[in-house]
Design brief:
Protein name: Phyllosphere-induced regulator PhyR
Distance between the termini: 47 Å
CATH architecture of the largest domain: 3-Layer(aba) Sandwich
Number of domains: 3
Low-confidence stretches: 69-76
Number of helices: 12
Keywords: Phosphoprotein
Strand order of the largest sheet: 2-1-3-4-5
Shape: elongated
Organism: Sphingobium chungbukense
Structural class: alpha/beta
Mean pLDDT: 87
CATH topology of the largest domain: Rossmann fold
Strand content: 5-15%
Largest sheet: 5 strands, parallel
Helix content: 40-55%
Order of helices and strands: HHHHHHHHEHEHEHEEH
Length: about 260
């Protein structure tokens, strides 16, 4: 199999990575073209002792680190959630951004990433932690919890505070929830469906969303009430009993793509 045939399946993923790294489709694609031109011009210099995918990304990084095809991460060609994600990544310094994208987006091991960017695995792990900490700092939010079970509410509150967010209030009825949301506007709502006075968390959320836009995560023992096949369905839905890690992941994901906390 020729080198070109070996590399061909990996090119779409390299383009994805290059666009995420540079924050621009045009700049990312330019780096990929430059990488391929370098390989064609000097095929004997292509790393032959590693997996072809690793060799391809290694060549890309050599081009990226030594060229100046762009002055910095841009956001051209992106809109909506993609633009928000690119804005967050653009705020990261280059090495942490590379380490995070290569592990989280491209699925490379820390040893592979160390080879690609010329660091040992411990340094790569620290870079990933640094990137995640920076993104967490960008997405700090005030959180309204709508939950009538005291033990569950306390557990959710602990999870939220452990992530570095502020809990504005814990509401147990629809009326409480709307009042608390109007008193102090939250950046995220975590809502149960069945509330203390037999009112509905769904209705509470509808009331709140009628006043302003805010990401919502439903945490419920009755997911079938929301997963009806009709639209709109919630983007984030967690079933009780829940894993703490699931709640943490949903919170991070909801805030990562929230326009209100996006860097400007």
């Amino acid at each position: 199999m020729s080198l070109g045939q070996q590399l061909h399946p990996h090119l779409p993923f390299l383009r994805r990575y290059a666009r995420a790294l540079t924050g621009s489709q045009a700049h990312g694609d330019a780096y990929v073209r430059a990488t391929l031109e370098a390989i064609v011009a000097a095929p004997d210099e292509f790393p032959s002792t590693v997996d072809p995918r690793l060799g391809l990304y290694k060549t890309f990084h050599a081009i990226w680190s030594s060229s100046h095809l762009e002055d910095g991460p841009l956001l051209s060609g992106a809109d909506g959630q993609e633009a928000i994600a690119q804005a967050r990544l653009a705020r990261l310094t280059p090495l942490p951004r590379q380490a995070l994208l290569l592990t989280a987006l491209e699925g490379f091991t820390v040893d592979d990433v160390g080879y690609l960017i010329g660091l040992d695995s411990d340094d790569v792990e620290e870079l990933v932690k640094e990137a995640l900490s920076e993104i967490e700092a960008q997405t700090r939010a005030k959180v309204l919890i709508i939950e009538d079970e005291p033990i569950i509410a306390m557990d959710i509150e602990t999870i939220v505070r452990d992530l570095g967010h502020e809990v504005t209030a814990i509401a147990v009825t629809r009326e409480d929830a709307v009042r608390e949301a109007m008193a102090e506007r939250p950046g995220l709502v975590l809502a149960d469906i069945q509330l203390a006075d037999d009112s509905s968390g769904i209705d509470a959320v509808k009331d709140i969303l009628a006043e302003f836009s805010v990401p919502v995560i439903f945490i419920t023992a009755f997911p079938e009430r929301l997963l009806t096949g009709e639209r709109p369905e919630p983007t984030f839905l967690i079933t009780k009993p829940f894993q703490r890690s699931t709640v943490k992941a949903a919170i991070s994901q909801a805030l990562f793509f929230d326009e209100a906390t996006a860097p400007v």
